[in-house]
Design goal:
The protein has helices at about 10, 20-25, 65-70, 85-95, 110-115, 140-155, 190-195, 200-210, 215-230, 240-245, 250-275, 305-310, 325-330, 355-365, 380-390, and strands at about 1-5, 30-35, 40, 50-55, 60, 100-105, 120-125, 130-135, 160-165, 285-290, 300, 310-315, 335-345, 370-375. The protein has 15 helices and 14 strands. Helix 13 (about 325-330) links the parallel strand 12 (about 310-315) and strand 13 (about 335-345). Strands 1-2-6-9-10-12-13-14 form an 8-stranded parallel beta barrel, surrounded by 5 helices. By secondary structure, the protein is of the alpha/beta class. Helix 8 packs across helix 11.
């Protein structure tokens, strides 16, 4: 089974042994970050550093100034954490020289710096609170920015494909700096309600779907009131039926209709823009969740629709491979990729020691490829287990 590993450019640039070490794992592909959100990352084997702190979302290559000149929404350049002017390009060249296929890894609707500098781009919840990390994909200016970012960051020199992360709605769930929102545990349905956007464009979208935004906001606040008092998820429940119980089937359907339309059209446009800029044979995959109402890095999608748009999906499977099934059921083209994404960093909840068994379960459910998160963050011991599993 074809296997790829995620990597940051700073894992490779400045470490002459990095590319060969990754190739020695037995992977055929590296999915290399070209546009990424803020992070603090461990680099346990790098000869020059152990921690990289990326202070804001940035692209890891020189932008095309002709594309972005005069535009208020544009990619941010990396700060002093970037090892060179073109860390993506240098890392990609080293990895390709080691015999690895390089695909770009592009994070789209997840950008705290954008929300801080341009507050009107952010998701606004039913209480009026802005989520600066979550650009609202219902806003035309945000969509135009994300589509152009997708095309530029995906089609880098030498890349044979791309994986688009956060190509859809982002919501409340986010590991923010010194995060302190876990005092009240929110269930699946409450997370959805707290992720609904009430910016002017979304209010118009709800109206077009048959719901009054004022009535919807009141329904959301009324439904969530018991959650704040109980301090637990019990009042909200899980799954789409729980959303319908909380705010009524009609309002729930209207929110989903608007949000699904916004996500679908963004995905269609982003993929089309990438393909227009890419050479023949360039693969475009989306990080995806088969529940259309879910938010986050693995964007909620409609499996049949997304497999008709992209060349495949990357599906989170660390907690089990069950999310693969809806995609496999709608995989009509034998060339369509359904990749199972497995965390192999023990300290981040991964299980590299059971990789062979986990891969076998994913394959039995119809996975065609594997992704391993994350070759740069894993310890030597974890990588040793990965190497042994892939050789099996």
């Amino acid at each position: 089974m074809r296997t790829g590993a995620f990597l940051y450019p700073w894992d490779v640039v400045g470490d002459p042994d990095a590319a060969a070490r990754v190739a020695d794992l037995g992977v055929q592909q590296v999915t290399l970050a070209s546009a990424y959100h803020s992070t603090r990352a461990l680099t346990p084997r790098h000869p020059r550093h152990r921690i990289v702190t990326a202070g804001h979302a940035a692209v890891l290559y020189p932008v095309d100034e002709d594309r972005w000149s005069g535009r208020s929404l544009r990619p941010y350049a990396a700060g002093d954490w970037a090892p060179t002017a073109d860390p993506y390009g240098e890392a990609a060249e080293a990895l390709a020289a080691a015999g690895l296929d390089v695909h770009s890894w592009v994070v789209l609707a997840h950008n705290s710096r954008l929300g801080a500098d341009h507050p009107d781009t952010s998701v606004v919840n039913a209480y009026g609170d802005r989520y600066p990390w979550a650009p609202c994909i219902g806003r035309p200016a945000v969509r135009a920015y994300l589509i152009d970012l997708a095309a530029e960051a995906a089609v880098r020199p030498g890349a044979r494909g791309t994986e688009l992360e956060s190509c859809g709605w982002y919501g409340l769930a986010h590991l923010h700096a010194h995060d302190k929102i876990s005092g009240v545990a929110l269930g699946d349905a409450a997370q959805y309600l707290m992720s609904l956007c009430f910016c002017p464009d979304c209010r118009t979208g709800y109206a077009e779907a048959g719901a009054d935004a004022g009535e919807l906001g009141e329904a959301v606040r009324r439904a969530l009131e018991p959650v704040w008092g109980a301090g637990s998820a019990g009042a909200s429940g899980a799954g789409w039926p729980a959303v319908e119980r909380l705010i009524g089937a009609g309002l729930a359907a209207a929110t989903l209709a608007w949000r699904t339309r916004a996500a679908r059209t963004l995905q269609e446009s982003a993929v089309a823009a990438v393909r227009a800029a890419a050479p023949p044979g360039f693969r475009v995959l989306l990080h995806a969740d088969p529940s259309a109402y879910h938010c986050g890095a693995n964007a909620g999608v409609e499996p049949r629709h997304v497999l008709g748009v992209a060349d495949g999906v990357v599906v989170p499977c660390t907690g089990g491979p069950e999310l693969l099934t809806p995609f496999v059921e709608h995989r009509a083209d034998p060339g369509t990729v359904v990749a199972a994404n497995l965390t192999v960093v023990s300290g981040m909840g991964g299980s590299p020691g059971t990789l062979a068994e986990d891969a076998a379960r994913a394959a039995a459910l119809g996975a065609t490829e594997l992704r391993l998160y994350h070759a740069g963050l894993a310890s030597d011991a974890d990588l040793g287990l990965v190497r042994a599993a892939l050789r099996r």
